[in-house]
Design goal:
Blueprint lengths: L9 E9 L2 E8 L5 E3 L12 H15 L4 H8 L3 H25 L4 H11 L6
Antiparallel strand pairs: 1-2, 2-3
Helix pairs in contact: 1-2
């Protein structure tokens, strides 16, 4: 695994235990940065990718008939959590949008809606 900060080799360095799952950690030999393996789109979100995809799918479905705030209440997720996820997705969406197409069951319309929700948080 390569370090995202300096590009040097990162080696396995123990595990991070999060909500009933063990996640491999890596440490850069050069700069000492700690990183978990896997999709960077979901790093630091405190839920598994499957949980996040499921919640985003529920949010998209609820958002079709409700306001942003009401949709968050319907799926019982704090508004700030959804906003934080959208901001995180917006930073690397261009790189990982294809991952959503291949690994989720979102329809073309769902992806269009998700793009619309992410767009305001993209850095200009």
């Amino acid at each position: 695994m390569k370090c995202p900060k300096c590009g040097a080799t990162a080696v396995k360095y123990g595990f991070y235990i999060s909500r009933k799952q063990k996640i491999q950690r890596y440490r850069c030999k050069n700069c000492g940065l700690f990183k978990t393996g896997g999709n960077p789109l979901f790093d630091g979100l405190h839920r598994t990718p499957d949980q996040i995809i499921n919640i985003i799918g529920q949010f998209i479905e609820a958002r079709r008939i409700n306001s942003f705030r009401s949709a968050c209440e319907v799926i019982n997720i704090k508004r700030a959590t959804i906003i934080r996820w959208l901001k995180k997705f917006s930073k690397c969406w261009d790189k990982y949008e294809h991952w959503f197409y291949k690994n989720t069951k979102f329809t073309e319309e769902d992806m269009k809606n998700l793009n619309e929700y992410i767009e305001p948080y993209r850095s200009k």
